Amino acid sequence: MAVSSSSATSTVMNNVEAVRATLYEALKNDDRTVILGEDVGARGNVFLITKDFINEFGPQRIIDTPIAEASIVGIAVGMAMEGLRPIAEIQFADFIYPAFNQIVGEAAKTRYRSNGEYTCPLVIRTPYGGGVRGALSHSVSIEALFYHVPGLKIVAPAFPADVKGLLNTAIDDNDPVLFLEHKKTYRLIKGEVPDGHYTIPFGKANVLKEGTQLTVVSYGLYVHWALEAAQKLQLEEGLSVEVIDLRSIRPMDKGAILRSVEKTRKLLVIHEDNKFGGIGAEISAMVAENALFHLDAPIRRLCAPDVPAMGYALPLEEEYMSSPAEMADAMREMVKF
Amino acid sequence: MAKTDVKTGRLERHGLSDEQLRALLRNMLLQRQLDNRGFQLNRQGKVPFALGSEGHEALQAGAAMAFNRGKDILAPYYRDLGLCLGIGLSPYEILLSIFARAADHNGGRQFPNHYSSKAAGLMSFSSILAAHIPHAVGAAYAMKYRGEKGRAVLVTCGDGTTSEGEWHESMNFAAIHKLPLVMLVENNEWAISTPLEKQMAQPEIWKRAKGYGMPGARFNGFDPIETYGAVKEAMDRARAGEGPSLVEGTCYRYLAHSTDDNDMTYRTKEVVQERRKNDPVPRFEALLVEYGVMNEKDVETMRKDVLRETNEATDAAEAQPYPQASDLYTHIYEGAWEPWQ
After folding, report:
1. How far does B216 lie from chain A, in Å, by closest CA?
2. Rounded to an integer, what is the distance from CA A65 to the centroid of its chain?
3. Looking at CA atoms only, how far is residue A29 from chain B in angstroms?
4. CB contact, 8 Å: A70 with chain B?
5. What pLDDT was estimated at residue B341?
6. Which residues 6+ apart lie within 8 Å of B37 measured at CB?
7. Structure pTM?
């Protein structure tokens, strides 16, 4: 599994290996942990994340479910209410819609509606996002459909070390967590991952690159592209852009965003999800409410156009998605505003 | 009604003692009284909403008697007053829910009849039909996974709920994994204003069990003893590790869906009166007298006792405070919560 080991205390792995390693440790450490979802058994999920788990942990803990998303999540809610620590998998984020009520109406409200008598310690993992020629039904971003909901936590890590630390936090959490894994980053993104058990708290953004002329807030795949664009602008044009990786969408790190905006006085939010009603709208409103008079330029959002999905044909996918070049253009325009 | 044993001429009791038979009647009388109380309080303007289970008394009392307190788990729906009473909730707890007081298990957050009690093994549930059924399946999975012997989950719903996808998905999963689960359908022929014939083309719900690979049975839900027998058999099978069952009790909803519903917009008084001739409460009173389990005076005493208990519970619950406005902000997540960190 490990690509190479650069030190005694960390291992280089990609995002999908980090997910696999973290799930494996969770199963090893706590026999209340079960994984349920479509094809998670002998196939090891369609990305082979849980491959061979069924041989070691058995079909009672690695549960191949019928193709029925509402009940995958619903059964996991019941398991969680009754003392297990289920990790439910939705094969692709696009398939999560039948489970919407179980996530929003049930899991997120279990603690609240029972006045704290019942809890729902549940992780729902799902691969999301485009850039893999996944067409309409294997490419969506779903975060804006869920981040409106108190009672639910949403995490979208971009780096392998964050994948492990945040997934451990999600598994330990006594509330439901929607854990979003950008599928294009699965094998593309590699990095050092500390060995042993560690956690990263939710609601703590990561400043990936310090800068003074513009704040860029992003998450998931686009964090990598935004960082690439910002570094290129620094190197080639001397522009100083600060890049923030949110890591968790709910809770979201208000302090990190405001501190940065108060320093750079300009804000660009970049995300892959649609612009209308997206995470960028919430961040923009929050900054307008809290730091309007620190701003030297209108807030800008670089997001997907308001069309239902990216198409399968390459030009349709490329038109839908932003590129590092487009991101660099937006950054340059804002710095020079 | 309960059959007479062919050999002895005695009441077919399914092993129920006189004491248990009296407890069945007491539960039924209490249900009737608490139903009345909810509707009265609504008409007095003291509570905004009430739900009734009139017509379900025998079914719920009988099913509750097949439940092992302290061991089994109940995942009920919103018309399960008698089941919740039967597994140990008190009239006072029922009235706390009706009055939405702070001391209610859910702190006055949910509609009346949405009980929960971890101590009683009663799972919290919402008003969304069928959403609780996979939860029951998950709980049954947890029992089986932990190797707990002699425990089962009793999950209930009305006939309308069997149209929901999650009902089907849950039956399928429970059968695949041979889970200790009993699916009890309380077929009262109405889903608010939608009658059975518009809900399904094949109105014998129990027959669907075969399609999922589990046993199914139908029983007369107006008879608490027959209900007990059918549900007990299914629960025992589940507790013995033999897998899930689908049992269907036939009954009738005498009241409107709720205090917000006018059932005269979709059925007639005459039809309801005709169906009231089957009312399980007076019939079971008469049966217990006929079989010498109680005399008429005993029945009268029990009725008075139940009314007194309901009155006392009403006064005690009404005297309790509402939740504080600040309680709106608690139990969203573990610990304190701010929308932004």
Report:
1. 22
2. 24
3. 16
4. yes
5. 80
6. B95, B98, B310, B314
7. 0.96
Which of A34, A71, A109 is closest, CB to CB, to B169? A71
Residue B333: list chain A partners with CB under 8 A.
Answer: 111, 151, 153, 175
Is A224 considered catalytic here? no
d(CA A228, CA A234) in angstroms, rounded, equals 10
ipTM for the assembly = 0.96
Sort out which chain B residues have CB atoms less than 8 A from A113's CB and list them. Answer: 106, 109-110, 114, 116, 124, 126
Asked if B188 and B55 count as a contact pair (C-beta separation under 8 A), the reply is yes
Q: Which of B124, B141, B332 sits opposite A79 (nearest CB)?
A: B141
Helix (H) and strand (E) counts in chain B: 12, 7
pLDDT in tens, A222-255: 999 999 999 999 999 999 999 999 999 999 999 9
- Residue among A81, A111, A252 whose CB faces B135 most closely: A81
| Cβ neighbour number for residue A174 with a 10 Å cutoff | 15
CA A145 – CA A258 distance, rounded (Å): 25
Tokens of B56: 């379900």
Closest approach of chain A CAs to the CA of B215, in angstroms? 20
Q: What is the pLDDT of residues B29-82, one digit of tens each?
A: 999 999 999 999 999 999 999 999 999 999 999 999 999 999 999 999 999 999
Q: What is the pLDDT of residues B263-306, one digit of tens each?
A: 999 999 999 999 999 999 999 999 999 999 999 999 999 999 99
